[in-house]
C-alpha cells in the first residue's frame, strides 16, 4: 500500500502548490465572473438598446465557443493583437471569467425576469425611482432565486480551471503531469489529482443541492 | 504586425477535417450517452441497493471531477495499469461518453420523477409488468419532457469535445493548434479556430433556445 503513496508523498509540497494555484485561479475566476456577469445581465435587462445588442451577441457567442479555445486564444493571440504580455494565470482567470460571466448574465436575466411585472408597477406607483425599485424590490427577491444557479456556475468554474493547465498554469493537473514525467506513475498521481478535485467539488455540489431544495422555491410568486 | 490570412485558406481542408472530427465525436458521444444515461437513471431509481449504489457512485464521481482530468486519466492510466490499449480517438470517446452519461442520468432521473405516480399505478393496474410500465408509459413521456435539457447538454458536449485535443485526437482544436505551431501564424490560426467553433456552435445554441421556448409549459 505504502509504495502506491510514494510518488505522492515524495512530491507532496509540489502537488500542494498546484492545489493552491487551482484554488486561487478558481476563486479569482468566480469573483471576476460574478462581477462581469452581473454587469452584463443588468445591462441586458435595463441598458440602452445600443448596449443590449452587443451584450446579447457576446453572451450567445460564449455559449458557442469552448472555454479551451477562449483560454488558448487569450494567452497566445490576444498579446499579439494588443502588444501586451500576460502570465498564464492572468490569461486563464481573464478567459475563464469572460466565459463564465456569459452564463452568469443569463442567470441574472432569468432571475430578474422571473419577478412579476406587477411588482415593478407597485414600486413605481409608490414613487420609487428605477434604481430604488431594482435595489429594494427586484434584486433582493431575484438574487435569492439565482443562488442555486450561481452555485452550479461555481462548480463549472472550478472544473474549467483544470483546463488552464494547457497554457502551463502551474495547477494540480500541470504539477501532476510533471510528477508523472519524473516518476512514471500515472495511476497514483492522476488518481491523486482526481481525489483532490473530488474533495473540492463534492462538498460544493452538496451545498448547491441544498440550495436548490431550500432556496429554489422561495419567493416564488 | 503583419497578418496573413491566406494561411487559413491554405489549410482549409485540414481545418474542415478537424471540424468533421468534432462533429463526429459529438454525435457518437450522444449516441452512447443517451442509453447510458437512461440505464444509470433506471439503476438509481431501482429498489435494489446493489444497483443503486454503484450508479450513484459513478454519477457523483464523473460530475465532481473535471472532464480534462478524466481524459488524461483514461489516456495514461488505462494502458499502463490495466493494459487496455485504445486509440486516442477511442479513449477520448470513452471519457466523453462516460462523462455525458453521468450528466444525462441526472436529466432522465428528473424527467422520470416528474411523471405522476398515477401513471405507473394505472399501467400496473392494466396488468403491465413494472418493466413494461417503465418502457411503454413512463420513459416516452419522460424523454419528451427532458428534450430541452438534452439539447443544452448537446451544446455543452459540442464544446467539451475540444478537450480531447490534449491527448492529440485531431479534432478542430488540435488541428488548429498544430497548424499554429507549424505555420507560426498564431493570431490567424487561433482566430480561425474560434470563428469556426462559433459558426458551428451559434446555430446550435439558438436552436436550443427555440426548443426551450417551444417545449415550455407543455406536458
Query: What oligomeric state do these chains adopt?
Result: heterodimer
Tell me, what is the CATH class of the domain at 19-171 in chain B?
Mainly Alpha
CATH architecture of the domain at 19-171 in chain B: Orthogonal Bundle
Secondary-structure content class of chain A = mainly alpha
The largest pleated sheet of chain B is described as:
none
* Main sheet specs of chain A: none
N to C succession of SSEs of chain B:
HHHHHHHHHH
Fraction of residues in β-strands of chain A? under 5%
- Text of the CATH class of the domain at 20-171 in chain A: Mainly Alpha
CATH superfamily of the domain at 19-171 in chain B: MetI-like
Q: So, the CATH homologous superfamily of the domain at 20-171 in chain A?
A: MetI-like
Rounded to an integer in angstroms, the radius of gyration calculated over CA atoms of chain B is: 21 Å
Would you mind describing this structure in some detail?
The complex is a heterodimer of chains A (221) and B (219). Chain A is mainly alpha-helical and 221 residues long. Helix content of chain A is 83%, strand content 0%. Chain A has a domain at 20-171: MetI-like (MetI-like fold), CATH 1.10.3720. Chain A has nine helices and no strands. Chain B is mostly helical and 219 residues long. Chain B is built from ten helices and no strands. The model of chain B has no long low-confidence stretch (mean pLDDT 89). The A-B interface holds A 60-61, 63-70, 72-73, 76-77, 80-81, 158-163, 165-166, 173, 177, 180, 186-187, 190-191, 193-194, 197-198, 201-202, 205 and B 1, 60-61, 63-70, 72-73, 76-77, 80-81, 155, 159-163, 165-166, 173, 177, 180, 186-187, 190-191, 193-194, 197-198, 200-202, 204-206.
Features:
heterodimer, A: 221 residues, mainly alpha, MetI-like fold, 9 helices, 83% helix, B: mainly alpha, 80% helix
List the helices and strands and how they pair.
The complex is a heterodimer of chains A (221) and B (219).
Chain A (H helix, E strand, L loop, with lengths): L1 H9 L1 H35 L2 H16 L2 H16 L5 H26 L3 H9 L4 H32 L10 H12 L2 H29 L7
Chain B lengths: L5 H5 L1 H33 L4 H15 L3 H16 L5 H26 L3 H9 L4 H16 L1 H14 L11 H12 L2 H30 L4
Amino acid at each position: 500500500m505504502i509504495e502506491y503513496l510514494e510518488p505522492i508523498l515524495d512530491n507532496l509540497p509540489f502537488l500542494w502548490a498546484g492545489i493552491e494555484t487551482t484554488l486561487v485561479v478558481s476563486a479569482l475566476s468566480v469573483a471576476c465572473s460574478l462581477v462581469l456577469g452581473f454587469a452584463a445581465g443588468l445591462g441586458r435587462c435595463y441598458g440602452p438598446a445600443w448596449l443590449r445588442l452587443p451584450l446579447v451577441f457576446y453572451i450567445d457567442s460564449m455559449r458557442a465557443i469552448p472555454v479551451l479555445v477562449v483560454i488558448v486564444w487569450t494567452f497566445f493571440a490576444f498579446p499579439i493583437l494588443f502588444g501586451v504580455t500576460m502570465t498564464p494565470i492572468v490569461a486563464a482567470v481573464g478567459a475563464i471569467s469572460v466565459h463564465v460571466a456569459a452564463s452568469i448574465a443569463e442567470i441574472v436575466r432569468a432571475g430578474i425576469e422571473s419577478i412579476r411585472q406587477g411588482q415593478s408597477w407597485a414600486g413605481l406607483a409608490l414613487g420609487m425611482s428605477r434604481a430604488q425599485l431594482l435595489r429594494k424590490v427586484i434584486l433582493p427577491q431575484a438574487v435569492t432565486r439565482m443562488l442555486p444557479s450561481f452555485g452550479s456556475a461555481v462548480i463549472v468554474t472550478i472544473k474549467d480551471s483544470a483546463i488552464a493547465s494547457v497554457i502551463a498554469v502551474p495547477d494540480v493537473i500541470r504539477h501532476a503531469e510533471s510528477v508523472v514525467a519524473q516518476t512514471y506513475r500515472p495511476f497514483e498521481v492522476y488518481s491523486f489529482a482526481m481525489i483532490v478535485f473530488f474533495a473540492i467539488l463534492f462538498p460544493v455540489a452538496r451545498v448547491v443541492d441544498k440550495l436548490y431544495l431550500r432556496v429554489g422555491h422561495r419567493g416564488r410568486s | 504586425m503583419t497578418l496573413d490570412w491566406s494561411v487559413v485558406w491554405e489549410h482549409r481542408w485540414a481545418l474542415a477535417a478537424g471540424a468533421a472530427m468534432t462533429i463526429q465525436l459529438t454525435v457518437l458521444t450522444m449516441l452512447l450517452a443517451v442509453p447510458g444515461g437512461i440505464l444509470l437513471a433506471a439503476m438509481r431509481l431501482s429498489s435494489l441497493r446493489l444497483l443503486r449504489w454503484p450508479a450513484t457512485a459513478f454519477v457523483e464521481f464523473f460530475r465532481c471531477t473535471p472532464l480534462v482530468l478524466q481524459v488524461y486519466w483514461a489516456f495514461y492510466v488505462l494502458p499502463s495499469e490495466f493494459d487496455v490499449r485504445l486509440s486516442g480517438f477511442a479513449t477520448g470517446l470513452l471519457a466523453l461518453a462516460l462523462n455525458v452519461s453521468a450528466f444525462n442520468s441526472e436529466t432522465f432521473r428528473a424527467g422520470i420523477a416528474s411523471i405522476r405516480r398515477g401513471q405507473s399505478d394505472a399501467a400496473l393496474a392494466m396488468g403491465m409488468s413494472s418493466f413494461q410500465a417503465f418502457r411503454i408509459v413512463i420513459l416516452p413521456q419522460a424523454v419528451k419532457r427532458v428534450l430541452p435539457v438534452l439539447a443544452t447538454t448537446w451544446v455543452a458536449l459540442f464544446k467539451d469535445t475540444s478537450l480531447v485535443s490534449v491527448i492529440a485526437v485531431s479534432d478542430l482544436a488540435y488541428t488548429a493548434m498544430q497548424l499554429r505551431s507549424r505555420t507560426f501564424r498564431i493570431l490567424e490560426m487561433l482566430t480561425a479556430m474560434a470563428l469556426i467553433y462559433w459558426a458551428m456552435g451559434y446555430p446550435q445554441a439558438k436552436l436550443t433556445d427555440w426548443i426551450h421556448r417551444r417545449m415550455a409549459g407543455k406536458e
